[in-house]
Amino acid sequence: MVNGEKERVSLLFMKALVSRGSVDAVSQQMASHPQYLESFLRTQHYILYMDGPLPLPYRHYIAIMAAARHHCNYLVYLHSAQFLRVGGDPLWLQGLEAAPARLRLLDHINKVLAHQPWLTACSHIQALLKAGEQCWSLAELVQAVVILAHCHSLCSFVFGCDTDSDFAPLAKSPNDTPPTFCPFDAANGNTNVPQSLAAPAEHKTRRREETICFADPSRFVTDPDFCYQEFARRDEDHFQVLRVQDYSWEDHGFSLVNRLYSDIGHLLDVRFRSVATLPSVHSPDLKRAIWNYIHCVLGIRYDDYDYGEVNRLLARDLKLYIKAVACYPDATKTPVCPLSWTLLKASERIHVNLLIMEARLQAELLYALRAITQYMIA
Fold first, then answer.
1. Cα–Cα separations (whole angstroms), residue 2 to 5, 11, 274, 343, 352
2. Is residue 248 part of a domain?
3. How many domains does the chain have?
4. Which of 366, 68, 131, 91 is nearest to 241 (CA)?
5. 28 has a pLDDT exceeding 90
6. d(CA 178, CA 293)
7. Are 358 and 290 a contacting pair, CB within 8 Å?
8. What family, per the record (predicted)?
9. Is residue 306 part of a domain?
10. Which of 18, 74, 211, 378 is the most buried (most CB within 10 A)?
């Protein structure tokens, strides 16, 4: 990394420390690609903290729900800490049943987008927008969907980079000292404060908050058996292929999401363009093959693309890795890295995981926004 890039990363980390009190592990891993990191942090900060129809505690709770679908301990703990930091009710962290009914209504579309996004339908949108006293506004729902898709895809990056396995919050030392890292500490900037220095009342409060943060992710999940299944192109009646020529990000999704949730379309578009143009040893054809392969296994097809290129450019072990990280990261835990990766720098491996994350993010958004479009014109 050249000096200019190091200065850019330092500035980004300084902004993160000022705004959130910490620099999380995900941002540190992305630091090898400063151009992308900047667009990622800007988008994430916007959807979680800037102006929008949803209250801040709702946003982090939705993020918890999304991360829990993939049993992603790291993100569940991180957003639990942020949820408390922005004034969220600790009782909600007892589990999904303790949350308000409006949030519980998101459970179905959360699990569908996370595991089988092609099932997202106009009826799911209608159920949320016409739920009586608990109904969502269209603007609220769009922001919620963006947060869900963002966190689902971020789970893929976390597992692909093995961040989750490095995070063992429930481990205790023999003398029952707290975990080495607590996201509540990180959320408040107390990353290196020894317990012995904390006042007794503060110590008791922090221990209670730590216990809340370290809740089992499964308590935020219903229907745990609902998971990824192969997209069945043969069953045209039930699983219609989403053809990009009929509904694309550039021609349809971008304008709709930007209209209903101001500026987010531009921020997301910068992310998609940034990851595609990062300097890399990977050829443009290889990056396109990775992107289109992920969309293919999620039921999205490009009529102008020769899918023979996927088999020509992607070795079988790389395809297996990509599919696992994109479609069922919770089941892989520690994905088996392709043999070809042993020759790559860490930054190049991270680049592939960024491509996987962004391709998945766009796929989920396309399905959700198409369903919203269908609802609006029905």
1. 5, 14, 19, 22, 21
2. yes
3. 1
4. 366
5. no
6. 43
7. no
8. Belongs to the sestrin family.
9. no
10. 74
Token pair, residue 5, equals: 């890039």
pLDDT reported for residue 196: 43
171 burial class (0-12, 13-18, 19+ CB within 10 angstroms)? exposed
Distances in whole angstroms, Cα of residue 97 to Cα of each of 1, 23, 101, 148, 220? 47, 31, 8, 19, 8
Residues acting as catalytic residues? 72
Please count the other Cβ atoms lying within 10 Å of the Cβ belonging to residue 12.
Answer: 20
Whether residue 35 contacts residue 278, with contact meaning beta carbons closer than 8 Å, is answered with yes
Note the maximum CA span of the chain.
66
pLDDT of amino acid 166: 59
CB 183 within 8 A of CB 23: no
Which residue matches tokens 């998945």? 360
Evaluate whether 149 touches 368 at the Cβ level (below 8 Å).
Answer: yes
d(CA 125, CA 255): 18
Q: Residue 228's domain spans which residues? A: 3-270+361-377
pTM: 0.86
Residue 129 lies inside a defined structural domain of this protein: yes
φ, ψ for residue 243, nearest 5 deg: -90, 125
With respect to residue 294, please indicate whether it lies within any of the assigned structural domains. Answer: no
289 CB-contact burial (10 Å; exposed 0-12 / middle 13-18 / buried 19+): buried
Could you tell me which residues come within 8 angstroms of residue 260 by beta carbon, excluding any fewer than 6 positions away?
138, 139, 142, 372
Rounded Cα gap, residues 363 and 136, in angstroms: 23
pLDDT-derived band of residue 344, with 50, 70 and 90 as boundaries? confident
Angle, helices 138-160/56-69, rounded to nearest 10 degrees:
50
Owner of token pair 């696992």: 324
d(CA 238, CA 371): 15
Residue 140, amino acid: E
CB count in 10 Å sphere of residue 209: 22
Residue-wise pLDDT for 209-265, tens only, equals 556 666 689 999 999 999 999 986 545 555 689 999 999 999 999 999 999 999 999
At residue 136, does pLDDT exceed 60? yes
In the block, tokens 């069953």 appear at: 235
Residues sharing a CB contact under 8 Å with residue 135, sequence separation 6 or more, in sequence order: 128, 129
